[in-house]
Amino acid sequence: MPASEIYRTLPEQIAARLRQDVLSSRLKPGDPLREIDLSERFGVSRGPVREAFRQLTQQGLLVLEPNKGVRVAQNPSVEVRPLVVELRRTIERFVLESIFERITASDITLWEEILADIRQACERNDLDALTEHDLRFHQAIIQSHDDRDLFALWQPIAMRMMMHYNRLDDIMDSYREHARILDAIRAGDRAAAIDALTANIQ
pLDDT digits over 156-189, tens only? Predict the structure, then answer.
C-alpha cells in the first residue's frame, strides 16, 4: 500500500483512486459509475464505494443524475470556464493576501516539499503525479487560512479546473510557475507572490 494511503479510510482510498482516474482522463466526462462494478474492482462492499461517491460529488468531480445514477461531471463550458478561473483566482488571492504576514517556517517547509514533488513529477513527465501535487500545493495554501467554508467553496472549483490537465506545452513550466510563487513568498514580496499565483491559475 502506498505510504500516502496508510492513514486514509477505505472510502478515502477509493475516492483517491477514482479522483486520479478522472483527473488523468481514464474516466471521461459523462462516463457512468456503478457501485457493483467498483465494489468488485476494489474488493469491498458497496458501502465504501457509496461514501467515495459522496465525497467526489462534494468535490465536484461526480454528479448524481435522476434515473441515470452517478456520472463523471462535465468540463466547464467554453463560456463558463473564464468565470471559473476568475473565481478560483479571487479565492486564492484573498487567502494569500490574508495569511501573508503570518506565514510560518513550517508553512514554507511544507510548500518546499510539495514543490520538490512537482519537480520530480515534471522530470518524470508524470502527468498523474503532477496533477496530484499541483492540487496539494494550492490546497496547502488554502488550508493555511483555516476556514472550512472557504475550503469547501474552493475545492470543487479547483477540482473541475484540474480535469484533463493539459494546458502546458512544456511540463516543466508547472514547476517554474510554482517556484516563482514560493520564491516571492520567501522574499516577503507580497505583490510578486500574488502576481505569480494569478499567472499560475489558468
Answer: 999 988 886 665 678 899 999 999 999 999 999 9
Q: Which listed CATH number (1.25.40.10, 1.10.10.10, 3.40.50.970, 1.10.3720.10) goes with 3-72? A: 1.10.10.10
- Whole-model pTM: value is 0.85
CATH number belonging to the domain at 81-200, selected among 3.40.50.2300, 1.10.10.10, 3.30.450.40, 1.20.120.530 = 1.20.120.530
Note the pLDDT tens digit of each residue in 49-67.
Answer: 999 999 999 999 999 988 8
* Cβ–Cβ under 8 Å, residues 160 and 76: yes
